[in-house]
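Dear support,

I submitted the protein below through the web form. The confirmation email said the job was done, but the results page showed an empty box. After a refresh the structure appeared. I'm attaching both so you can tell me whether what I see now is the final result or a partial one.
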Amino acid sequence: MDVIELLKKSVATSSSKSVSFSLLVLRIGISISMIFLHGYPRFINFSKISSEFADPLGIGTETSLVLVVFAEFFCSFFLVFGFLTRWICVPLIITMIVATWIVNGGKDFIFQEKSFVYLICYTSLLISGGGYFSIDFKLFLGKKNYYQQR
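What the results page shows now:
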């Protein structure tokens, strides 16, 4: 195989397994980051921070914190395994929209950047689903060809 053919094949070829592996890396990476940097600290310090947590939607500080912990800790945990991926992304997307445009709205983009990047990742997973390497695939698609169904 000459160099040009090798280059063409390496650039223009993607298999369903490689796309699914990319989704696995994205799910695990974004979820572990969300859990350990945001969800877990809020979960273990719930009683300490519940009275001073932001209330951007006017539903109360404790209720806001419950919803954020649910999204950032529990939903992220399920996302690691690709369990109900598309449904699990919805609370995470809502949380990131609130963080980006309500909590940090009006501030410089540097304050919105992290939640915006999370939002892009979760939206991508909402569109794509969990992929082959997910519990969703094992439970709902079984041995059927995953990419021919779409």
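Response: this is the final, complete result; the empty box was a page-load delay. The longest helix spans residues 16-44.
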